[in-house]
Design brief:
Elements: E1 2-5, E2 11-14, H1 22-33, H2 42-50, H3 64-68, H4 75-87
Antiparallel strand pairs: 1-2
Helix pairs in contact: 1-2
Length: 94
């Protein structure tokens, strides 16, 4: 791991070559998504953001396979979102 500092002065450990600051990314995603979504990793939030998904109810239009095809969205994020949807009486498309 290497220690990096972003343009906003946040210091963080990074094991990959990805230049994204997890602190800045988390803050940005929190502003876009509010507290409607459960806590997900920054890559999963960026994947949802790039697909234009901003509300949990929009996920009902997507299948598991479609979400897993989004770059940065993996099985853990899928499991967390499915649990959250279930708690709200919603589900992914079949």
């Amino acid at each position: 791991m290497s220690i990096r500092t972003c343009k906003n002065g946040h210091t963080f450990d990074k094991s990959s070559s990805c230049p994204v600051c997890p602190i800045c990314s988390g803050e940005e995603m929190g502003e876009k998504f509010g507290d409607e979504f459960p806590k997900l990793g920054a890559p999963a939030f960026r994947a949802l953001d790039s697909a234009g998904i901003r509300h949990l109810s929009q996920l009902t239009n997507y299948t598991e396979e479609q979400l897993l095809q989004l770059h940065g969205f993996g099985p853990k994020a899928l499991r967390i979102l499915k649990e959250t949807l279930n708690e709200k009486g919603l589900s992914l498309s079949k």
